[in-house]
Description:
Chain A is of the alpha/beta class. Chain A has nine helices and 16 strands. In chain A, the strands form three sheets. Chain A has a seven-stranded parallel beta sheet with strand order 5-9-4-1-2-3-10, with helices on both faces.
Amino acid sequence: MAKVLLLADHNGDSLNVSTTRALRCAAALGEVDVAVFGSGAGKAAEAAAALQGANRVLHVDRPENASPLAALIAPQLAALAADYDVLLAPSSTFGKDVLPRAAALLGAPQISDIMEIVDERTFKRPIYAGNVITTVRVPAECKIVATVRIASFTAVEAAATPAPVETIATDASLPDHTQWISLQASGGDRPDLQSATRVVAGGRGLGSEESFAMIFQLADSLGAAVGASRAAVDAGYVPNDMQVGQTGKIIAPDLYIAIGISGAIQHMTGIKDAGVIVAINKDGDAPIFEAADIGLVGDLFQIVPEFEKALGSG
Amino acid sequence: MKVLVGIKRVIDYNVRVQINREGTDVIKEGVKMSINPFDEIAVEAALRMKEAGQATEVVVVSIGPGAAQQQLRTALAMGADRATLLETDDEVQPLAAARALMNLVEKEQPGLVLLGKQAIDDDANQVGQMMAALWDKPQATFVSGLELDGGRIRAVREVDAGLETVEITLPAVVTVDLRLNEPRFVKMPDIMKAKRKPLETIAFSELGIEMPPRLESLGCEPPPSRSGGVKVDSVDALVATLKDKGVL
């Protein structure tokens, strides 16, 4: 059985959902050890140990690992990965930042965004913004290094009994040329866009930052996260980390409600794996309706408040 | 400070790519080619540094076929000082590209390497991180804000959780995201001027880099398509359909 090392994306206290999804892919490839780099990140390590498919959790605990810096984590990860056949990371911005740096140190080619396992060395991945799917094979005798496309795998369940957590030390000397300064998070108390089961997103059709408040209200009555099209972000209605699509977040909620979004191909790339897509748009010919499971043509300024009311009474 | 910018020749952003009949690759013949949009933003960032007196020279480099000279000429017309093409007709995968670019870094000794965060053809998002590893220098990826201060860069990164700020020392590798800037349009007189700027071609095979293992491509296929569903004519019908589907 192949030995698999999975890099965990976490915030010290809890795991990012990208980790629990990537674990689904990792467990299909072999026996998985989860690497948690942190400083006193015992809670995140325990969260990883509680997941089905985790054989062992390696908590690499040192003060320098307090911030998610690729230049510091990659050399430790590469050293740790020496004994493994497969090294995986979720395709979160953290995984995408760290893994190629580790791959280069290992002298191994990397597969980005595994979306399907064909066999133990062969994988499907999207190219051209998801408009083409290519199948690639890792040559024999070569370590498999890959990121896992988050939207293509479901989160693993909780394990019956937790896996052991081992706190380990690496003696790799770490550079001091990179300093983490700050994180300006957005979103507040709403569910995280990347992991939410329901997402309400607004586009240029909203017309202004003020009107976008309707989207937040509807989202709150559904317990949903809020997303936006690139057009809405570029117009300044909402910050960029809410952008869904090719250059934003690729998401796979159970329910996606697109309001005033025309459905440019770059946007559709971001929601292809959603369960049910609802489109509300005044233009009945908008491309979003070609992919939507349920379409409602009409004035969003009338429909959205009515929808919210119907939810409240239902 | 010298800035080295990597640019890739890719199928233009607006072209709807098509898979060839054999299902081995996408059709690249007779299709409009351009500078990878993220790399164009990297060129613009370098030019702004030069205009602000922070950079002394902007060198652009590409790996690809002879025709990639067109994209290098475009970057020269934007304002880059000179260009180098590492010429090959073969597909160069990220790790090999990173090693080839490092070969040039050793020769040029730039203070900063700027790249797009990813190319829009293979969507790999690897070369910058790999270069930084091989160079043993800091990296800042997904950068949408860049402030140069002496020997340091303060970079704002677009990460899943929001905007992260890091500070790195130079030399470094920075890969840029969409919102860093809007690249300038090229003017006709600049295109004429660019023809006289130096463009060096080096055969990729003559770099003598050690070629890493290659991922083998077994073919291409279109993505599974979503077909449109039903249209409803009222909010009540919408709510009812959502309940039917079990998502409300």
